[in-house]
């Protein structure tokens, strides 16, 4: 969907984006009173193809275990909307899009994007679809940040909120990991100060290293050890060299290489920065509970025991704030060794929680 | 007088009794709410705004499926997160004996709730005394089915012990009810020693 210059996206930085384009997918049918909309928010490198084959990778949707007919977020029942975030590279305006002012790709001329900016753009799309109130806004990781931002910014437009494996701010450690990734990209000579598209290059090595570093944070020590141990890759003994001796090295290299096929390096800079800047309490006078005062939204928060990127303490900070605000909140900590990525995987306890939460919320919404 | 509550829980008289003690429209926190049976009963019959805390994810998920707002957490560590006077009632049903620090839990309950409702199995019941006194064995009864080595119940008390704790934390006993082995309420004018010997369970309403 394209918005004209009469509908600019005004950003937190003060800049604005004219001719905003939003790439999105929908699943299921919008009901007659337009009340069954569920907005699913994707994580850092996700996209709008939540429950359908990704046209770039040819792989199934990134949350097909959660979203689909008869799934916990049931598309037989709900009208599911998923948009590519602003700053992304799958159809929504981002660094690789054409800057209308120059006719060239934006590159680093795209203004900085924040999580609230992403949510504001989603709200423009939801408006354009004629939906006043979403039945639910759901998402994990950066998607969970968007859920919290939705609930804080538009409480009357969110009947139920489902933030998973997320937190009310990006921690110092998380900012540090993102900085490593950005520096890897910017250190690649093929980055060309962000103008690689104009000169026909691509900082593939830098982006792959960024992905490799980040991917470690999505798993757990125990999970990695269980999956790979110290097993060697296609050899019986160590080769006394810097080739990928170990399976875990080979796996990470593969993750890095396949990532660069589908993701734009500048987008990676923008979207990681948006997460770094997120601090919901700071936006509300330093007190997180202020973000949710008087809210009627019902919340279900889920965390995972082995997630060290967004540990349970981060989720509990949100739970505490919601309690202090007198909000309706449920919280489940799922036991797993799969780390942060557990939210994307087959975790039956999570599915049961989401099913229970959504069906009882639906009973309350349409009683 | 409180209004009677009807429900299909005839085998859990203590739950019905607790539900009767809750005023309509109140804000209620059920600590250790299990699968949400009591909280659901209170929401359905007393029209309250109910919340729960439960240790197990299985319990939390059963509560979610019932439409209850429940947090996975621990009475010993998570009550401190609630602001003062958040609730009209904080309920601890058959759970105080499983907490690590019952005195601190009771203190927190009275801080975050205007009233605390506590029900617990009476360790002074004559069957318990008989088992320990005559057989010399820790009691294993229908109500207390665990052996000493696998019981989650680490802080048993008698009705008189509990009354002493109430005095110690300066809680006012607004109401106290004992249930006999048949689940019937015992006569109100019976002396404490009689309750302590024949009451199988007790329900107390406390305030600061």
TrEMBL record, chain B:
Gene3D superfamilies to which the protein is assigned, alphabetical: Vaccinia Virus protein VP39
Pfam families linked: MetW
Taxonomic superkingdom: Bacteria
SUPFAM superfamilies: S-adenosyl-L-methionine-dependent methyltransferases
UniProt protein name: Methionine biosynthesis protein MetW
């Amino acid at each position: 969907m394209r918005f004209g210059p009469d509908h600019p996206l005004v950003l937190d930085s003060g800049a604005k984006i004219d001719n905003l384009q939003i790439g999105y997918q929908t699943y299921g049918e919008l009901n007659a009173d337009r009340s069954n909309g569920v907005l699913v928010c994707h994580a850092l490198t996700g996209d709008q193809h939540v429950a359908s084959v990704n046209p770039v990778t040819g792989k199934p949707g990134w949350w097909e275990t959660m979203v689909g007919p008869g799934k916990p977020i049931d598309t037989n029942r709900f009208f599911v909307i998923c948009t590519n975030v602003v700053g992304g590279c799958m159809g929504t305006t981002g660094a690789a899009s054409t800057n209308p002012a120059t006719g060239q790709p934006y590159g680093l001329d795209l203004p900085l994007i924040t999580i609230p900016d992403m949510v504001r753009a989603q709200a423009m799309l939801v408006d354009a679809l004629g939906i006043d109130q979403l039945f639910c806004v759901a998402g994990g990781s950066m998607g969970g940040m968007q859920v919290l931002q939705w609930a804080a910014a538009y409480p009357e437009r969110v009947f139920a909120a489902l933030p998973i494996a997320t937190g009310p701010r990006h921690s110092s450690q998380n900012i540090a990991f993102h900085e490593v990734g950005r520096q890897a990209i910017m250190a690649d000579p093929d980055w060309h100060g962000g103008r690689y598209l104009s000169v026909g290059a691509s900082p593939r090595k830098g982006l792959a290293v960024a992905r490799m570093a980040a991917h470690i944070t999505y798993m757990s020590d125990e999970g990695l050890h269980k999956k790979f141990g110290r097993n060697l890759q296609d050899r019986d003994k160590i080769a006394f060299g810097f080739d990928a001796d170990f399976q875990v090295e080979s796996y990470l290299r593969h993750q890095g290489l396949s990532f660069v096929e589908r993701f734009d390096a500048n987008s990676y800079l923008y979207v990681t920065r948006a997460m770094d800047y997120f601090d919901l309490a700071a936006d509300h006078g330093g007190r997180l509970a202020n973000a949710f005062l008087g809210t009627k939204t019902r919340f279900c928060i889920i965390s995972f025991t082995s997630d060290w990127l967004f540990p349970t303490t981060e989720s509990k900070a949100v739970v505490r704030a919601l309690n202090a605000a007198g909000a309706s909140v449920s919280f489940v900590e799922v036991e797993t060794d799969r780390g942060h990525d557990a939210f994307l995987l087959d975790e039956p306890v999570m599915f049961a929680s989401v099913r229970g939460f959504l069906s009882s919320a639906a009973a309350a919404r349409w009683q | 007088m409180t209004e009677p509550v009807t429900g299909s829980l005839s085998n859990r008289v203590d739950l019905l009794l607790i539900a009767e003690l809750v005023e309509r429209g109140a804000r209620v926190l059920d600590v250790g709410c299990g699968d949400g049976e009591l909280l659901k009963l209170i929401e359905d019959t007393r029209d309250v705004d109910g919340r729960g805390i439960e240790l197990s994810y299985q319990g939390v998920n059963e509560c979610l499926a019932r439409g209850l707002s429940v947090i996975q957490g621990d009475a010993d560590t998570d009550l401190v997160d609630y602001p003062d006077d958040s609730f009209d009632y904080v309920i601890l049903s058959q759970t105080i004996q499983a907490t690590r620090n019952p005195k601190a839990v009771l203190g927190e309950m009275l801080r975050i709730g205007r009233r605390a409702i506590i029900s617990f199995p009476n360790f002074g019941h004559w069957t318990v005394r008989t088992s320990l006194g005559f057989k010399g064995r820790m009691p294993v009864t229908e109500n207390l089915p665990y052996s000493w080595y696998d019981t989650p119940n680490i802080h048993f008390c008698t009705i008189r012990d509990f009354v002493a704790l109430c005095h110690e934390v300066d809680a006012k006993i607004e109401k106290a009810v004992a249930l006999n082995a048949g689940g019937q309420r015992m006569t109100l004018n019976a002396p404490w020693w009689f309750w302590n010997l024949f009451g199988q369970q007790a329900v107390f309403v406390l305030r600061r």
